[in-house]
Amino acid sequence: MKLTILGCHSATPRTNTNPTSQVLEIKNHMFLIDCGEGTQVELRRNKVKFSRIKHIFISHLHGDHYFGLIGLVSTFRLLTRETELHIYGPKGIKEVITLQLKLSDSWTNFPLIFHELTSKESELIFEDDKVEVYTIPLNHRVYTNGFLFKEKENERKLDIKAVLEANVDKAYYRKLKQGADVVNEDGVLINNASVTKKPIPSKSYAYCSDTVYNEDIIPLIKNATVLYHESTFLDKNENLCERTKHSTARQAAIIAKKANVETLILGHFSTRYNGYDEFKSEAKEEFENVLLAEDGKSFEF
């Protein structure tokens, strides 16, 4: 599982900071999460293949999370894309994008499929044989969702020596990996656990930006491998959180601790601060395994 941060700052883009966007590579998928202004430039800078992006998840309709979307869609058109593009986001995302395409007479030459979200409860919005994606309802100034990306349970590993000794035909190896008991060539039922090993633990990634401190999300992100949680402010500016519906680094760490996640990544930093080491310091007072997002930085888990 690989996460590439394209932008991790709030509000407006600057010469050295980009608004929110990131790419998650998981089980051969390349998911684009939010699409702030300048995203396609950062995709090129980080050598992300445009053709691999088939699903885009937009958390909410504040500009620093989706103003780059129409540009990216238009570029896909100019590149003569033919593959479907699925966009998941709040109700209204279809109207705002299609209006721009209509007024510029720039309809896409590829299927553009919108999945508009309105539920205030967590729901499954994408699923295939390897990955599930759920919404994480957040508490912000407008309707907002985070997203939970979960690998489905991995296949069991064959203990080849045990399989051969049990005289199991190769035709049944697939069933063994799927956890089934099988009958060997002598007609004896072979218990799966006796010839296989436990699968590699499945991984999950929880993306939570933007939100005020909200313990309601804890059951949804419980035991996640990685949590990205917004940390717009430091403690000294906590008074701004309720009005703006944002969180501090310490509050993000408290959520991580209560949810028992493995790793916390802080992001969505306010550009009022000159450096970000203090974010990590404040968070680590509550939760040990803290990383800082950084434009252009990749993490592998």
Description:
This protein is an alpha/beta fold. 23% of the residues lie in helices and 28% in strands. The chain has helices at 39-45, 63-66, 69-78, 93-103, 160-165, 173-177, 218-221, 241-244, 249-259, 277-284, and strands at residues 2-7, 21-26, 29-35, 53-57, 85-90, 112-117, 124-127, 131-138, 144-151, 157-158, 182-183, 189-190, 196-197, 204-208, 226-230, 263-267, 290-292, 298-300. A seven-stranded mixed beta sheet has the order 6-5-4-3-2-1-18. It is built from ten helices and 18 strands. The protein is globular. The termini are close together. Helix 9 packs across helix 10 (277-284).
Write the layout of secondary structure elements.
Layout: E1 2-7, E2 21-26, E3 29-35, H1 39-45, E4 53-57, H2 63-66, H3 69-78, E5 85-90, H4 93-103, E6 112-117, E7 124-127, E8 131-138, E9 144-151, E10 157-158, H5 160-165, H6 173-177, E11 182-183, E12 189-190, E13 196-197, E14 204-208, H7 218-221, E15 226-230, H8 241-244, H9 249-259, E16 263-267, H10 277-284, E17 290-292, E18 298-300
Helix pairs in contact: 9-10
